[in-house]
Write a structure and sequence with these properties.
The chain is mainly alpha-helical and 137 residues long. Helices cover 47% and strands 0% of the residues. The protein is elongated and about 55 Å long.
């Protein structure tokens, strides 16, 4: 059984809203609201909830009193970065190269890289016909 007061306290300390926690865990906001209000006694997503809050299922269930005891190390990346990596892994190699080039260009602070703007390659890395476009003299 999840102790709703503990859930509420940890969410407050971490400044995470019900909607944000639901998004990170991959459940509806209503699911989190039920746990938050004590209307639901448990969740099959308890481990994900605890991980996102930087605590343990044992703490949320009242088995231990220290929210940090055996808590997992917080993820190195935020939820959006992890989601981006998950989607990136499902892309075709040419699409991965294209997206990486776009990211490099955007992260460059307005200084376009040679990789992104190389005249002999398209945005997916395919060879362009060097006789088309550009200066013809």
């Amino acid at each position: 059984m999840i102790y709703s007061d503990r859930l509420r306290d940890v969410m407050g300390e971490r400044q995470i809203s019900q909607a944000e926690l639901a998004r990170r865990v991959g459940v509806s906001q209503q699911t989190i609201a039920k746990l938050f209000q004590g209307a639901s006694s448990g969740s099959r997503y308890l481990h994900r909830i605890a991980r996102e809050l930087g605590t343990t299922p044992a703490y949320l269930e009242g088995e231990v009193d220290d929210p940090n005891e055996d808590a997992p190390v917080p993820p190195a990346a935020d939820s959006e970065s992890r989601e981006m990596m998950e989607h990136f892994g499902h892309l075709a190699p040419a699409d991965r190269r294209a997206l990486l080039q776009i990211a490099r260009s955007m992260a460059g602070g307005g200084t376009p890289s040679d990789t992104v703007h190389a005249p002999s390659r398209g945005y997916r890395g395919e060879e362009k016909n060097p006789g088309l476009g550009g200066d013809q003299g």
